From TrEMBL:
<dbReference type="InterPro" id="IPR004714">
    <property type="entry name" value="Cyt_oxidase_maturation_cbb3"/>
</dbReference>
<feature type="region of interest" description="Disordered">
    <location>
        <begin position="45"/>
        <end position="69"/>
    </location>
</feature>
<protein>
    <submittedName>
        <fullName>Cbb3-type cytochrome oxidase assembly protein CcoS</fullName>
    </submittedName>
</protein>
<dbReference type="Pfam" id="PF03597">
    <property type="entry name" value="FixS"/>
</dbReference>
<feature type="transmembrane region" description="Helical">
    <location>
        <begin position="6"/>
        <end position="26"/>
    </location>
</feature>
<keyword id="KW-1133">Transmembrane helix</keyword>
<feature type="compositionally biased region" description="Basic and acidic residues">
    <location>
        <begin position="58"/>
        <end position="69"/>
    </location>
</feature>
<keyword id="KW-0812">Transmembrane</keyword>
<keyword id="KW-0472">Membrane</keyword>
């Protein structure tokens, strides 16, 4: 029976921490765009196009000025 005097304050502390984290998340707008993750699964073509554009290598040897020694 004496264990309940320890478990109840610990449970209350966990609830207060969880409520505090929830209100922090709402205040920092963590829940402002709930559809973003769902749409990113369906429409991820922008990421693929962006990655392919950033990894392009120069194909024309005239672009590389270091080859003339």
């Amino acid at each position: 029976m004496s264990i309940i005097y320890v478990l109840i304050p610990i449970a209350i502390l966990f609830v207060i921490i969880a409520i505090g984290i929830f209100f922090w998340a709402v205040k920092s707008e963590q829940f402002s765009d709930l559809n973003k993750q769902g749409h990113s699964i369906l429409f991820d073509d922008d990421k693929v196009q962006h990655n392919s554009q950033t990894t392009k290598q120069p194909t024309d040897k005239g672009d590389n000025d270091h080859s003339h020694e």
